[in-house]
Amino acid sequence: MTSQITHSDIPARLDRLGWSRFHLLVVVALGITWILDGLEVTIVGSIGPALQDPRTLALTAAQVGSSASAYVAGAVIGALIFGWLTDRVGRKAVFSVTLLVYVVGVLLSACAWSFWSFALFRLITGMGIGGEYSAINSAIDELIPARLRGRVDLAINGTFWVGAALGAGASIPLLGGHVVALNVGWRLGFLIGGLLGLLVLLLRGWVPESPRWLIAHGRETEAREVMDHIEGRCSRHGALPALECAFVAAKPKMTVRDVCHLMLGRYRARSLLVLTLMASQAFLFNAVFFTYGMVMNTFYHVPSHRMGLHILPLAAASFLGPLLLGPLFDTVGRRRMISLTYALSGLLLGATALLFGYGLLDEMSQTIAWMLIFFVASAAASSAYLTASEVFPLEARGLAIALFYAAGTGVGGIVAPYVLGSLIGTGSAWMVSGGYLVAAVLMLMAAATEAAIGVDCEGRSLESLALPY
């Protein structure tokens, strides 16, 4: 493949901008993806016991886990399809379509009448969310200044837990049977996500196409018009240091084969790193959170309408982790902080698994233990998405994120909910503890991998981290 290299000051102009209302719009309009994902995961986690009730869908524990796996499988499929499209047709063109797919899926979930219909509609919902990850991570990283990219990315990824809190809070009145009947309340829970998604579609119309993507695809005039518009919406840019010239490729669109060749060739070590980070955090969070309600109900006899009271503090700790630790990823550095958060998450999870197996935890202490783990693990998981979006070239960024999200989530996200759901169904605390210990070992392995081959991305432009292919 031949490449035409052009000079452009657009990357440097984007990186010199001060924080402004434009960046806040980007964060709100695009970052809503993680809120929606958190809402979906928490609603299913909270209503798991309710869905086993004969008055609803009468699912078994394994079927609840399988429906969660269907959601994750859909996310993998959506990531691959829309990840390929986001590099070919642009970030903006894709992130509106993916949000529509999500809205359709979640509204259909509210109308499910059996296990198979519920699983199918969860798969469609997951396709929308999975597609969002590729387009949104690409767009955000390409629009946020380099010196702020780490903390902003972690804070945005952490908003998953804002969605989790919304889902947990909504589950209290919806599943208690006092405000609405149980067979109606669980359906209303899904309507929340659908209505929120429709509102966000209005905001996304104000977010421009990535100027970096435009210039990389030979659309220089349009890229400069968008860049001028962005600078016009930002109050700070003229007084900052003079711009440096950046190299950007204007070339034919890369194929899936080209991207795979790139991942397995020049960026082989980075590919191993991202896959390890993605798979380990996906196993941890999908194993724990999709089955959280069933664990609390089976081993601590917490009724479904009280599940939200346990998820709310968990969500708060998980949101505060990336928010408070995020700046350290820009100052202390990516490699040190990613290694530390992954290692600490694994150690805390291992200790909690043993205490759980020995029966030394109760309803309250189990919740506190998860709060400590998720405070650190949420920052670790967010850094996996940050790494995937930083270390590969622009023209392959969307598909690269999709491939590693799909591979990591396929290993950790599809298998984990089904396995943990089945282990919970045995009623054995030690069987469940064994599943948690596997997740702990995976997190420790990821910490070691980051320490050995991690990339120091803090404060560096995307173009300096990965040259055009």
Question: What does this 3D model show about the protein?
Answer:
- It contains 19 helices and two strands.
- By secondary structure, the chain is an all-alpha fold.
- A two-stranded antiparallel ribbon has the order 1-2.
- α2 (21-51) packs parallel to α6 and α15 packs antiparallel against α16.
- The radius of gyration is 22 Å and the shape is globular.
- The mean pLDDT is 83.
Query: What gap, in angstroms, lies between the N and C termini?
Result: 9 Å
Low-confidence stretches: none
Mean pLDDT: 83
| Count of alpha/pi helices | 19
Helix content: over 70%
**Physical arrangement of strands within the biggest beta sheet:** 1-2
- Choose one word for the global shape: globular
| Rg estimate, integer Å | 22 Å
Largest sheet: 2 strands, antiparallel
* Total strand segments: 2
Structural class, by secondary structure, is mainly alpha
Give the SSE string. EHHHHHHHHHHEHHHHHHHHH
Report the sheet-strand fraction. Answer: under 5%
SSE topology:
Layout: E1 4-8, H1 10-16, H2 21-51, H3 61-89, H4 91-109, H5 115-143, H6 149-158, H7 160-175, H8 182-204, H9 211-216, H10 220-233, E2 246-250, H11 256-264, H12 268-289, H13 292-300, H14 307-331, H15 334-357, H16 363-390, H17 397-425, H18 429-453, H19 462-465
Antiparallel strand pairs: 1-2
Helix pairs in contact: 2-5, 2-6, 2-7, 2-8, 2-13, 3-4, 3-5, 3-17, 4-5, 4-8, 5-17, 6-14, 6-16, 7-8, 7-14, 12-16, 12-17, 12-18, 14-15, 14-16, 15-16, 15-18, 16-17, 17-18
Quickly describe the structure.
This protein is mainly α.
